[in-house]
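does this look right to u?? S-adenosyl-L-homocysteine version
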Amino acid sequence: MIHFVGAGPGGVDLITVRGQRLLQEADCIIFAGSLVNPALLDMAKEGCIIHDSAKMTLEEVIDVMVEMESQNKTTVRLHTGDPCLYGAIREQMDVLDEKGIAYDDTPGVSSFCGAAAAINAEYTLPDVSQSVIITRMAGRTPVPEKENMKSLAAHQATMVIFLSSSLLDDVQKELLEGGYPEDTPAAIVYKATWPDEKSVRCTVGTLAETARKENITRTALIMVGGFLGTKYDRSKLYDPSFTTGYREATK
Ligand code: SAH
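got this back:
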């Protein structure tokens, strides 16, 4: 059996209880070494075989899984954050299906949640934005043209930009061309929930300059939108004059 597991954003105590148990029980762990906190590997049992997938191809990862299966052993494939975002799990699952190898998936705390927590932010403020666009800048890995950053920026919703901290000149240009005013609040969160986490607030117009000044070129999320500002409406859910399925209006 192969268990895909979300490692969480970095902090070792942010893996789920289920993920921790699977790590403790695994005969083999293949972890995404570029971003998974290696301290999580301390949970492995003695004799556990450990591979860093940062140095492996898909074929090599699959070879390890197949070998473990042939010995009736349990493998944990440990992905950063939640495996469902930029995790490249589908291509592994499809090969496992072809080979008739069983697997399951345990979610994790995605870094976009860890980064919001790092700056005590709420992405979906009433009357500011009720949508979160998760995307990345096209670089060596392309993004379909129909979802280019400029067109997504036109919504002026909350945006969380992954995998793009080395491309901030382009990000900034596209966001501005897409319609965000220069002074739209923005934030850069580096290594959210890790011991060396760092966050800086800036504006869309100063994103690239801010990252340069702070020396941030990787492992960061870029957040953009009015949710980082000061104006919003209070929620209806907790408004005394609003009746909900659980509570009658009192005023
Ligand atoms: N599946 C992961 C994302 C993997 S893509 C998740 O759910 O978080 C890798 C990108 O995620 C990095 O380039 C960076 O943009 C972001 N990232 C991962 N961990 C991060 C962290 N702790 N702090 C800030 N950004 C992080």
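The domain at 2-109 is CATH 3.40.1010.10 (Cobalt-precorrin-4 Transmethylase; domain 1). idk if thats expected tbh
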